[in-house]
Fold this sequence. Notes:
The protein is of the alpha/beta class. The protein is 35% helix and 15% strand. The chain is built from 8 helices and 10 strands. Helix 2 (82-95) packs parallel to helix 3 (117-129), helix 3 (117-129) runs parallel beside helix 4 and helix 4 (142-151) packs parallel to helix 5. The protein is globular.
Amino acid sequence: MTDQDTLTIAGRHFQSRLLVGTGKYRDMAETGEAIRASGAQIVTVAIRRTNIGQNADEENLLDVIPPSEFTILPNTAGCYTADDAVRVCRLARELLDGHNLVKLEVLGDQKTLYPDVPATLEAAGKLVADGFDVMVYTSDDPIAAKRLEEMGCVAVMPLASPIGSGLGIQNRYNLMTIIENADVPIIVDAGVGTASDAAVAMELGCDGVLMNTAIAAAKNPLLMASAMRKGIEAGREAFLAGRMPMRRFASASSPLEGTFWQGGA
């Protein structure tokens, strides 16, 4: 990759294509260390679950991931209605002094954490009209993904498999269709378990990958963060390089044509 191969979202340019969350770590110190080990520049924060200044007597996450070093991406994790999600985004904008870049997710079910797509479409429409730059978590439905783009979302974030499952890329053909139809960044969100999953997503042509549990729940989060960083970079380079065609039968790496001996007596 080169300095020119940047991830561009709503006019902002990023060298890293790995986006990370801040939940499930042992403490604030580990959170900051793992995020730095990942090389991520965009860090997503669940406003309903994390203190970024709304509770003066609690530890402030921004002390370990300061906005001067990272792009903070407020998200609406834990919201199950469009109105609730919109309210959380407006709170985040107030807390972050007019910050308009948000990650929208409206969940439909507590067991699977699958998105409620109709409610997501409703919330996205309201937020775009209110001046937000919306990065949106959605299902792997190519039709829903395109509609969210057409509504004005600046990035579409289809799941690879359920949130926190670690099952990896279970829907590569749907993802490929979404990518082929898109004119905004497509960022895999949810389901990544290890570095090879991240590499596969990038090899398919995704513009980035967002993850949290895969790093935070690893036995060694700092080492996994480093592995994810490398997986993203390797997958991106492989995509840009263009893989060889897949063949059913062998193809000798050292052809016999033109050699002195080609068999026979």
